[in-house]
TrEMBL record, chain A:
It comes from the Eukaryota. It is an enzyme of class 1 (oxidoreductase). Residues 358-385 form a coiled coil. This is Pyruvate dehydrogenase E1 component subunit alpha. SUPFAM superfamilies: Thiamin diphosphate-binding fold (THDP-binding). Tetramer of 2 alpha and 2 beta subunits.
UniProtKB/TrEMBL annotation, chain B:
Residues 37-212 form the Transketolase-like pyrimidine-binding domain. It is an enzyme of class 1 (oxidoreductase). One of its GO terms (biological process) is pyruvate decarboxylation to acetyl-CoA. Its EC number is 1.2.4.1. It comes from Raphanus sativus. It catalyses: N(6)-[(R)-lipoyl]-L-lysyl-[protein] + pyruvate + H(+) = N(6)-[(R)-S(8)-acetyldihydrolipoyl]-L-lysyl-[protein] + CO2. Its cofactor is thiamine diphosphate. It is found in: Mitochondrion matrix. SUPFAM superfamilies: Thiamin diphosphate-binding fold (THDP-binding) (SSF52518), TK C-terminal domain-like (SSF52922). One of its GO terms (molecular function) is metal ion binding. One of its GO terms (cellular component) is mitochondrial matrix. This is Pyruvate dehydrogenase E1 component subunit beta.
Length: 427, 364
């Protein structure tokens, strides 16, 4: 079942989904990571001490507890429409990424490509709860975040092929998916770089409300990995987000590996959710291979942020089925671990849930899969047929104000010279 | 009035022409106005006016609020605009710079202060990767109307880690605009232009100039006053040698030009104002007039701003040069602390005079 927040949160949602929480209490001893074949090295006495101390220091404690079984209330977590929407989104993510791998090995895609296979539950679970004006900030593993946020498969595929019809006209590439229309604020190659940018976007929501007096309920979701949680910028932003009570959700996609560096080998305390309470925000740990659990946690986090109660740190334990990038031989992860997580594929799990609870039948799901297959194939054809950017595009968009290229030899602004974007750069 | 002076010049001969011309020029380079303003007040008034004109402009940085600004540039802004628009941040350059960039992505206009630009190195990833490159990477969808400002370059006895000049580093990045004011008028006009600009601007001030007073015209005191980005200013006209520089060195170059004038060399002093985009047109036009170039900067010599200016002049005006280009920069060492060593590590007026004379083949 989904893990829950601390007791200081008032609860929101229908009666069926009510998570029952006692008032402030000490957190129970931590459980080991759900799927890893390595065990945690924290001795239990030390962790108990930590939790006790945390409870004394602040009323907000990272809580990890099992909530009462929802089946008792005899209601489901999602409706049929929601279920099919989630299924379609995850299938889109998976098919798209598989197609990317194919295209890369055929030479149509190049450079660094990082695939999201296995982590779809996190993207779908969070982003499908957002509106168009909410913002998402991601890392280089951003294709599926862009797709979930609404950027069309054609635009993403063309961008990956480096064509002018891409979402960034071929100028960004795999790692830099931007879409102003869908408020997808990137696509950053440096880990940790997106976190302050996301915090700034959340800052703008608050500023619009308080200073510009506009009604603004937009939240920002920042996605990043386990390796990023050892980076200074992460902590700087946890501090400032909690300090200024910004409407942001920090989502850690803990897939246990940062290229070839195991999370357990590089982190003194591998339980990332615990770092939230240290800064005064709830820290939640959730099984990131289960889209419904992620969605429940996401609902509370997003509602909390919209109500103005501040940030939340959500650690989703997930796994990437492929290597770090298409150039990664992926030799360091052992087969047993991969098999264990492959058995917990989020798409298979959702399919099983939908069918067992009679929300959909085999035929409907097959239709969705077929529809997505066609969509992705069409996206590839579209991208193939699209032209490459024109030569003049090289110098465009460096500045929003074109006078940024300065004065030409004739004394006038270079951008006023009609020949400026035609030939080779004579800047 | 021009006519009479010209007649007198023709009668008296070349020497007095130079003298009268330079007197006229220096009167002309500071517009007729009896008001004086320190650079500090100029910057403060610029930020104040832009904040009152546009509610999306806000200030963030260390000690900008309650402390009234580490160098008192943001004095009075907290009281006037409140804590929602003047943010005292924790000591987290990477964090708050990134927050500023994210806020700019979402439509606000932050003015991020670095206590000195040396501290911007902790945030340089955001200045370059998420601010400068974003408009290009997103193909024009996301522009970043942010200003990064703060003191740059050497101060007095602050040691190696507080004295580096970052003009060359930032000016090499496409997507950034880099400005370096000298006088109060420069400071006001360029900062207002920077805040209104839709692109990321790195605004390099100078701590030692903050307290200096400059005459300022009525026009510059108007709240809509703005200087164009990318145009250099000819501070002093001359015809024998061109001295190109920016920020504090402009003052030194003007003093050097006075000394050179006594020896009969008429120096043209160009205040770059804008390091990126560099006003190559003005520099080259001036060198084609004088045939000699001396460039001065405070920063490290290798790959510096002067190197770029020299390369540009050699590429575009080679056949006009009568002497090798002269480049004066800070010494190729981290800044020493001892006062006499610091003086040796930075360009002084004598160095500029010597280089100009060398360019005119007048050195002993």
């Amino acid at each position: 079942m989904a893990t829950s927040f601390s007791a200081t949160l008032p609860l929101h949602g229908s009666q069926e989904n009510r998570l029952l929480l006692p008032p402030i209490r000490l957190a129970p001893p931590p459980s080991s990571f759900l799927g890893s074949t390595r065990s945690l090295t924290i001795p239990s006495s030390r962790s108990r001490l930590y939790h006790a101390h945390a409870a004394r220091r602040s009323p907000v404690v990272g809580v990890q507890e099992v909530v009462k079984d929802k089946k008792v209330t005899n209601s489901l977590l999602i409706t049929k429409e929601e279920g099919l929407e989630l299924y379609e989104d995850m299938i889109l993510g998976r098919s798209f990424e598989d197609m990317c791998a194919q295209m890369y090995y055929r030479g149509k895609m190049f450079g660094f490509v990082h695939l999201y296979n296995g982590q779809e539950a996190v993207s779908t679970g969070f982003i499908k709860l957002l509106t168009q004006s909410d913002s998402v900030v991601s890392t280089y593993r951003d294709h599926v975040h862009a797709l979930s946020k609404g950027v069309s498969a054609r635009a993403v595929m063309s961008e990956l092929f480096g064509k002018v019809t891409g979402c960034c006209r071929g100028q960004g590439g795999s790692m830099h998916m931007f879409s102003k229309e869908h408020n997808m604020l990137g696509g950053f190659a440096f880990i940790g770089e997106g976190i302050p940018v996301a915090t700034g976007a959340a800052f703008t929501s608050k500023y619009k409300r308080e200073v510009l007096k506009q009604s603004c309920e937009d939240v920002t979701v920042a996605f990043f990995g386990d390796g990023t949680c050892n980076n200074g910028q992460f902590y700087e932003c946890l501090n400032m987000a909690a300090l200024y009570k910004l409407p942001i959700i920090f989502v850690v996609e803990n897939n246990l590996w940062a290229i070839g560096m195991s999370h357990l080998r590089s982190t003194s305390d591998p339980e990332i959710w615990k770092k939230g309470p240290a800064f005064g925000m709830p820290g939640v740990h959730v099984d990131g291979m289960d889209v419904l659990k992620v969605r429940e946690v996401a609902k509370e986090a997003v509602t909390r942020a919209r109500r103005g109660e501040g940030p939340t740190l959500v650690e989703c334990e997930t796994y990437r089925f492929r290597g770090h990038s298409l150039a990664d031989p992926d030799e360091l992860r052992d087969a047993a671990e991969k098999a264990k997580y492959a058995a917990r594929d989020p798409i298979t799990a959702l399919k099983k849930y939908l069918m067992e609870n009679k929300l959909a039948n085999e035929g409907e799901l097959k239709m969705i899969e077929k529809k997505i297959d066609e969509l992705v194939e069409e996206a590839v054809e579209f991208a193939d047929a699209s032209p490459q950017p024109g030569r003049s595009q090289l110098l465009e968009n460096v500045f929003a104000d074109p006078k940024g290229f300065g004065i030409g030899p004739d004394g006038r602004y270079r951008c006023e010279d009609p020949k400026f974007t035609e030939g080779t750069a004579q800047v | 009035m021009w006519g009479i002076l010209r007649q007198r010049a023709v009668v008296d001969g070349g020497l007095s022409l130079r003298r009268t011309r330079s007197a006229l020029v220096s009167a002309r380079s500071y517009a007729a106005g009896s008001k004086e303003m320190t650079v500090r007040d100029a910057l403060n008034s610029a930020i104040d006016e832009e904040m009152s004109a546009d509610p999306k402009v806000f200030v963030m940085g260390e000690e900008v609020g309650q402390y009234q600004g580490a160098y008192k540039i943001t004095k009075g802004l907290l009281e006037k605009y409140g804590p929602e628009r003047v943010y005292d941040t924790p000591i987290t350059e990477a964090g708050f710079t990134g927050i500023g960039v994210g806020a700019a992505y979402a439509g606000l206009k932050p003015v991020v202060e670095f206590m000195t630009f040396n501290f911007s190195m902790q945030a340089i990833d955001h200045i370059i990767n998420s601010a400068a490159k974003s408009n290009y990477m997103s193909a024009g969808q996301i522009n970043v109307p942010i200003v990064f400002r703060g003191p740059n370059g050497a101060a007095a006895g602050v040691g190696a880690q507080h004295s580096q000049c970052y003009a060359a580093w930032y000016a090499s990045v496409p997507g950034l605009k880099v400005l370096a004011p000298y006088s109060a008028e420069d400071a006001r006009g360029l900062l207002k232009a920077a805040i209104r600009d839709p692109d990321p601007v790195v605004f390099l001030e100078n701590e030692l100039l903050y307290g200096e007073s400059f005459p300022i015209s009525e026009e510059a005191l108007d709240s809509s006053f703005c200087l164009p980005i990318g145009k250099a200013k000819i501070e002093r006209e001359g015809k024998d040698v061109t001295i190109v520089t920016f920020s504090k060195m402009v003052g030194f170059a003007l003093k050097a030009a006075e000394k050179l004038a006594e020896e009969g060399i008429s120096a043209e002093v160009i205040n770059l104002r804008s390091i990126r985009p560099l006003d190559r047109a003005t520099i080259n036009a001036s060198v084609r007039k004088t045939s000699r170039l001396v460039t001065v900067e405070e920063g490290f010599p290798q790959h510096g701003v002067c190197a770029e200016i020299c390369a540009s002049v050699v590429e575009e005006s080679f056949s006009y040069l009568d002497a090798p280009v002269e480049r004066i920069a800070g010494a190729d060492v981290p800044m020493p602390y001892a006062a006499n060593l610091e003086r040796l590590a930075l360009p002084q007026v004598e160095d500029i005079v010597r280089a100009a004379k060398r360019a005119c083949y007048r050195s002993k």
